[in-house]
# Entry
Amino acid sequence: MNNDDLLRPIDGADALTAPLAELNTADAVEYLNALDEAETTALLEALPLPRAVKILEQPELRHASELIAALPAERAAALLGQMADDRATDIFHELDEPDRQRLLWRLSAEARLSIQKLMRYPPNTAGALMTTEFVAVPTDWTVGRTLQYVREVERSRETVYAIYLLDPATRMLEQVVTMRRLITGQPDTPIMDVAQVNPPVGVDPLLDQEEVARLIRRHDLLAIPVVDPTGHILGIVTVDDILDALIAESTEDVQKFGGVEALDKPYMQIGFVEMIRKRAGWLSVLFLGEMLTASAMQHFEDELARAVVLTLFIPLIMSSGGNSGSQATSLVIRALALRELRLRDWWKVALRELPNGVVLGSILGVLAIIRIAVWQNAGLYNYGDHWQLVALTIGAALVGIVTFGSLSGSMLPFILQRLGFDPASASAPFVATLVDVTGLVIYFSIAAAILSGTLL
Amino acid sequence: MNNDDLLRPIDGADALTAPLAELNTADAVEYLNALDEAETTALLEALPLPRAVKILEQPELRHASELIAALPAERAAALLGQMADDRATDIFHELDEPDRQRLLWRLSAEARLSIQKLMRYPPNTAGALMTTEFVAVPTDWTVGRTLQYVREVERSRETVYAIYLLDPATRMLEQVVTMRRLITGQPDTPIMDVAQVNPPVGVDPLLDQEEVARLIRRHDLLAIPVVDPTGHILGIVTVDDILDALIAESTEDVQKFGGVEALDKPYMQIGFVEMIRKRAGWLSVLFLGEMLTASAMQHFEDELARAVVLTLFIPLIMSSGGNSGSQATSLVIRALALRELRLRDWWKVALRELPNGVVLGSILGVLAIIRIAVWQNAGLYNYGDHWQLVALTIGAALVGIVTFGSLSGSMLPFILQRLGFDPASASAPFVATLVDVTGLVIYFSIAAAILSGTLL
# Structure
């Protein structure tokens, strides 16, 4: 670092940064989030560099890229250069192109190259999540030499609890040693003697973060190496990045299931126009799909005019189909995400959902028949002379529609996955719309079969 | 360990365990999951004890408690005694009472007491997740002495990467030292000199696991101490348990949002009756709520008979209200879970959702009016002499219903949280049902206002 004078806190900084002195990093981030941009920028300039770096490294700090852009370029570059490279990459991703270029060329060549490399990986992949700041030593070192090396480089590494052993000639990843094993080994023991027995689990840089999380969890790791096809280690993904990724992923899943495009930002930070854009798209698509219900109803216009009593139960019947579909979809989405189910298991699921749907539909059908009978006999409402047949129609329609809802709700995520989409795109509103149109046809077909000659 | 003869693999075991020899733990678990209970039990008996322990410690191993119950009591107790105590506690939780008692009394006094203590904490709390196998040393030790102690106890501790410093007199938790700092310190440095500056972040044993995850993530920890009200450390929750807990939690959230009771088991492992029970409850409750739509429709019977054209749009209008409500609910559920929003922010959300709803409703309203005008003028369908008024009714109803949907969908999670429920219980079907009933009333009121004197 050859610009030490720039990194020293500016005059009068003590008074400015006093409120932060007692706070840990997480609390300091919260404090800064409540200030406006000018105040936060002033503080980030006044704080000692290591403290400012720690604060900027928290993904919870809001508008980090705007703050970096607003800082003097020298200070911004110093901060970015000292930050963990994966987090610096995140910030570079959010910067405008002019700011990005302006700051990138002020970094050291090493930092610039590592950030440029990381920026090339698509978001939500192992490559985008990884840090290049890991510890690697040749396989022919001893425990003592490795430990000494770890002590020297510790400050610049994101984790030192997994040490990667490379072939001295080819530099290919051979083995992993945990810090636990390292500290319990004798100094003159060859490092390979304390390494794990099984070959290390590595991931491709393009692997999806959800899959990376699954592997980290499956093998109880604190970090997983990212390895290129030739067997060279590119970086590591640490468990704290995976925690953040999992939380972001589950936010996205709930939002998608609710029928919204993933927001990527906290609710209160989304602008009005952006919020409308994220919601209007799906809402309009579903609306256009749902317009088919109007067409279906037009088709049954005569039946509707002759038997208004049938109209009364349309919302009840259709919502039940949508609800049972939404249940089945949520179950299958998660089972697919957790690899409890594979694409090839679709028929097993269909064979379970079919009887499930019949039983659930029958339960609701019986409830509906009871309701109609009670209202009729208690004189609360007159469903007409053929009220028994009407009740039978409603009951039978519920069995049909709930079965159809369960079946199509459970198959939809499979179909999406088969077509190469995220099965979690199968939202509750999507399933409801799908079931609504078919539900109407089922309802009126059953009505025609049971009531023709009497009401119809 | 005084029963070494019991722990040695039985005769002929080599042939039996041969297929597992080459597999890492995660793969071995998958291999065992595909076998039947008798085969798996035989293998767990034949494997060397440490290997069998490692396999049983994986939460992915299915039917672990049944396997333990099926093993000879001595072997089962030896396995449970060697396992991480938090995982052994999970298995004890799932055992029947007779098996539980039978095995508990075969454990060493130490293991039994620690498991009995852990079993007392309610599920999904810090206490239930924690392990008592952590490293703690007095604050007056040196770096060298601590490191030597860690080397000695390493094998019996779940993590050694965080070392907890206790006051020598009161045994209260004073500070935390990370392994990173420990290995870089000089052997004769007092341990307190390498400890963190800020006091350690601790959690109450009854804190919810979601909150524990939030704190671990917020402070970038590998483990968090669980501390009783007197300041004594009871155990630690490690990041791998938090990963598992987060994944279980997000499965639960998606299932709840889909309107199913949380399954707690993989989809294909739930029995038929249990699956029906998990789904029929909510489905029936929603059905009974939705019956109010039939009552609402009965109330507007005259209007329906006079203007069948109004019926055609019922599914379209109602589903739009449900969809916009489901969007708003999913956004607010996640924002509350991530603490982006607090209970007191409800009015800010309401002030955002109101204009959002009006704009989204207007977009759909315009789409509906265009559709009616096109169909009418292209001769695809005749909406009657007053088709412009009908179109206006549908458009206005959409604005009203989508606004109501967004507003009530966004307020529902707040109301649930205020009443002490999990805001994530606000499922898409729940919101849809809520909006359906009111939506009908809005629709017919607007229709009455616009069409009275013409169609009505």
Summary: Residues 154 and 280 of chain A are 50 Å apart (CA to CA). The two ends of chain A are 88 Å apart (CA to CA). The first strand of chain A starts at residue 135 and ends at 138. The longest helix of chain A spans residues 346-377.
